[in-house]
Amino acid sequence: MDNTKKYAELVFATNNKHKLQEVRAALDGQLRVVGLEEVGLQGEIPETADTLEGNALQKAMWVWQRMHATCFADDTGLEVDALGGAPGVYSARYAGEHCSFDDNIDKLLSALAGKDNRKARFRTVICLIEPTGDDAHPMISYHTGQVEGLILTERHTAGEGFGYDPVFMPDRFAVSFAEMPLEVKNRISHRACAVRELTDYLTHSKR
Fold first, then answer.
1. List of residues 6+ apart from 100 with CB closer than 8 A
2. pLDDT digit string (tens) for 94-149?
3. Catalytic residue among 75, 106, 134, 135
4. How many CA atoms within 13 Å lie on the side-chain side of 93?
5. What is the DSSP letter of 80?
6. Structural domains in the chain (count)
7. Does the active-site annotation cover 75?
């Protein structure tokens, strides 16, 4: 029996259409995923933890407390070796609160100016929350994915991608994430790897 059939719908704790598109493509129709807008949830989702795991749990729990439905959230960080793993959990606000990703990229390129070591990785952590029959004690699991690569010295883009994609070139490729066709990125990205781990968990769950 395909155990994914018992999961009629997964609520993804995001309003980010790029993330939704990537996750749906990675799942390839195996499960129905809906975003916050589609289930009518509004409000500021907390994201104040100091780890990717903590932020993913915080965001998923925000949905769980309002719906008590199977839900998940992700958090992603860009970890740059020459910067001691920064920006990491602070990737989205690396250049400050309310900054744009162009601001973040500018700061990153400036911080790496003149450095030979440009090794980096994207890491995604997904937190899944499932009902157990006791709303106060749901089942919580984590699913991770990462991709190694290099930070380029300038933006390389062909109109695809978002975030740091224009300056991240994954290992074994000669183009940035932003230059890749979406279907290629969706096969190899950190988020795709985490989603595959999540899908494998849901598919092989015996509960």
1. none
2. 999 889 989 999 999 999 999 999 999 999 999 999 999 898 899 999 999 999 99
3. 75
4. 9
5. E
6. 1
7. yes
